[in-house]
Amino acid sequence: MFAVWIIEYQAGLVRYFDSFGYGLTIIVILISYALSRIFNRNTLAKTLVFVHAAIYLLMLAVLGFLSAAEDGNLYSIATSLQWIPIIYILAFLFLSKRLAIIAAISVYLILVAMLLLTFSGLFPVQNHELRLLMVNMSLSHGLYIVCMFAVVRLKRDSKKQTVIARDLEKAVNFDSMLKIANRRHLQQLMDSYESNQQAVTLLLIDIDNFKQINDTYGHQAGDEVLLTLVECIKKNLRPSDVIGRWGGEEFMILTQDALGEDVTILAERVRRAVEHETFPHVQDVTISMGVADLNDGLDTESAFRSADRALYKAKRSGRNKVVIHS
């Protein structure tokens, strides 16, 4: 825009209003940038940009129209009509959908009003090219607005489809009650690690005597134990670790950066945290854990069998223990 202004200025086409408007535009842009970047007032900055652009471009169009009606010079009105669609774009980018529609239609009605004035006899319009220009403007700008409506509709539908797809993914890959990965998703992750030859450690967890908890306190109390357990384990994992429900009272943790002695520290930290956690309705809850590595050419099935054997050994040797498969 500023390059055009320089060319127009050198050609003697810049009027007083343009000189004032370009300078004010620079100031508005700087103020809006400061509001957005420094003061974090993004909404105010966007509103300021839209209001300035709308007022400036509409005034430019009106003055150009009056000038064309008076002396027949179409340059000013033609160039201003070329910039008017920026108002529609800014409205749909910066305003809410309702305000954007109102703003776009209001601007369009102002332009249509200028078209009607060329046929009303209120102005001594003798230049038929001005009438044709305004007719062409009303058709093209109406199409611009329709296209903007279509873009907004497509964006809304795309956003809706994204939400639906995300909800479906959660329903398929996550446990509905515990909000963690389910067996299907855990299997997918392990298959991915195997395909990419990424070393990962499996921590297979089983709640000790969980059937007795359900039989003594009821299934609702058992569900509350599961929820409390998951939250307790989450608090003792790192962001890169993944916890999921393998089935029933069995859980699995997948960790990529805790091999060797580090995985023992992680597993013991989780076990001790559960041991000292306060559970609703139940006095003591403990877990047993079997640990195995998915690396060195082992497939997921072999790694899981190793972790399962280690878990069985932990439960057989007294429960509330961690056994590392070697």
SSE arrangement:
Elements: H1 2-10, H2 16-37, H3 42-71, H4 75-83, H5 85-94, H6 97-120, H7 128-173, H8 183-195, E1 200-207, H9 210-217, H10 219-235, E2 242-247, E3 250-255, H11 261-275, E4 287-294, H12 300-316, E5 322-324
Helix pairs in contact: 2-3, 3-4, 3-5, 3-6, 5-6, 5-7, 6-7, 9-10
Sum this structure up briefly.
By secondary structure, the protein is an alpha+beta fold.
What does this protein look like?
The structure is a single chain. By secondary structure, the protein is an alpha+beta fold. It folds into two domains: 2-168; 183-324, Alpha-Beta Plaits (2-Layer Sandwich), CATH 3.30.70.270. The protein has helices at residues 2-10, 16-37, 42-71, 75-83, 85-94, 97-120, 128-173, 183-195, 210-217, 219-235, 261-275, 300-316; strands at residues 200-207, 242-247, 250-255, 287-294, 322-324. Strands 2-3-1-4-5 form a five-stranded mixed sheet, sandwiched between helices. A hairpin with a 2-residue loop joins β2 and β3 (250-255). The longest helix has 46 residues, at 128-173.
Largest sheet, spatial ordering of strands: 2-3-1-4-5
What structural class is derived from the secondary structure elements? alpha+beta
Oligomer type: single chain
The radius of gyration computed from the alpha-carbon positions, rounded to a whole number of angstroms, is 34 Å
The poorly predicted ranges are none
Helix fraction? 55-70%
Mean pLDDT: 86
* Number of beta strands: 5
Major pleated sheet = 5 strands, mixed
Contiguous helical run count: 12
Number of domains: 2
